[in-house]
């Protein structure tokens, strides 16, 4: 395992032999909203630093970027998302994700990488305690009963 601050030393985690890079790092939704500077430093600055390192060390490498449906704001399109859907993020996290999607598109257009963005509606069953993600409660609903813990669901505390 490599541990590095991607904003400071992205090149230290990139190897010439890479065929692909899957970018899953980031400060999640409500965490990025709560700490504006940290959200932009990790979600935007570190991503751009990593893209620059990949382009310099592994030109045209396949890059898969995990974005979020947060780029669409509310309501999220009910049907399949197409190029006709307009991004209207309502939180810093969604803004940060659309900025990085734009980086991916521009670096790909210029032939520096071969990048694709994809959107997760949510990540369920995160390990450990509740995180700063807006959807963290979903993990608890599924994970906690598996270990005989009553799940915490905000707004449902007094329901039988």
From TrEMBL:
In this chain the NAD-dependent epimerase/dehydratase domain maps to 38-114
Q: Does the keyword RNA-binding apply?
A: no
**UniProt KW NADP keyword:** yes
Enumerate the InterPro entries for this protein.
Epimerase_deHydtase, NAD(P)-bd_dom_sf
Query: What are the record keywords, sorted?
Result: Carbohydrate metabolism, NADP
Top-level taxon = Eukaryota
Name the UniProt record assigns to this protein: NAD-dependent epimerase/dehydratase domain-containing protein
């Amino acid at each position: 395992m490599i541990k590095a601050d991607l904003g400071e030393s992205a090149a230290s985690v990139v190897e010439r032999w890479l065929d692909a890079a899957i970018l899953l790092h980031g400060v999640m939704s409500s965490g990025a909203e709560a700490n504006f500077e940290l959200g932009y430093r990790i979600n935007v600055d570190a991503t751009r630093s990593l893209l620059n390192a990949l382009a310099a060390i592994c030109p045209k490498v396949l890059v898969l970027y995990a974005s979020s449906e947060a780029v669409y704001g509310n309501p999220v399109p009910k049907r399949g998302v197409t190029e006709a859907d307009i991004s209207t993020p309502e939180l810093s996290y969604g803004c940060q994700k659309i900025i990085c999607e734009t980086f991916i598109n521009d670096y790909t257009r210029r032939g520096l990488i071969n990048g694709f963005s994809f959107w997760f509606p949510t990540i369920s069953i995160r390990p450990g305690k509740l995180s700063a993600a807006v959807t963290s409660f979903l993990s608890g609903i599924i994970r906690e009963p598996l270990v005989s813990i009553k799940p915490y669901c905000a707004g449902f505390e007094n329901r039988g």
